[in-house]
Amino acid sequence: MNSIISLNSVRFLVLVLTQVLICNHINFLGYVNPNVYILFIILFPVKNNRSLFILVSFLLGLIIDLFLDSGGIHAAACVFIAYTRPIILKFSFGMVYEHQNMKFNTVDFGAKLTYITIMTVVHHIILYSLEIFSISKIILVLQKTLFSSIFTIILCVLLIIIFSRKSK
């Protein structure tokens, strides 16, 4: 249990620092801005306390908001995906999630990709809807969501492949 807490604490710090120091300075064509910090929410253990998980997700978003001076939009998007995560897990993994014996490294790649894609797109739709906050600019919200989601999904999958442990 102690190793799980330390692993998640290190993951939290590394993803926040990566987001703040590297990813926040990427703004390609005005639309592409990767948000790799959501990988913490995506990879958080399934069996932990849900209230604690939502609180930690709020703190993650709040820390990103403090660095970006964005007024709470990252916190809102993080809390939303943390709250809806059980539904997305059930949709993506089916019966494996139902029995709560799921390990992220042991499920097939298609289910992982579906899960990462849904979590990322939902996060980005909430984030950019709150950032732009104008129904007349819905095309801009969708463009930013699409392009940032694609780049974020690619980075998240690459990070998972690079840093995953091979179980034998």
Automatic annotation (TrEMBL):
Q: Does the keyword Plastid apply?
A: no
Keywords from UniProt, A to Z, are: Cell membrane, Cell shape, Membrane, Transmembrane, Transmembrane helix
Query: Matching InterPro entries, A to Z?
Result: Cell_shape_determining_MreD
The UniProt transmembrane annotation reads: 12-32, 52-68, 75-93, 113-133, 145-164
Q: Which domain of life is it from?
A: Bacteria
Location of the protein in the cell: Cell membrane
This protein's membrane topology, according to the annotation, is: Multi-pass membrane protein
Q: Which NCBIfam families match?
A: shape_MreD
Give the UniProt family note. Belongs to the MreD family.
What name has this protein been given in UniProt? Rod shape-determining protein MreD
Organism this protein belongs to: Jejuia spongiicola
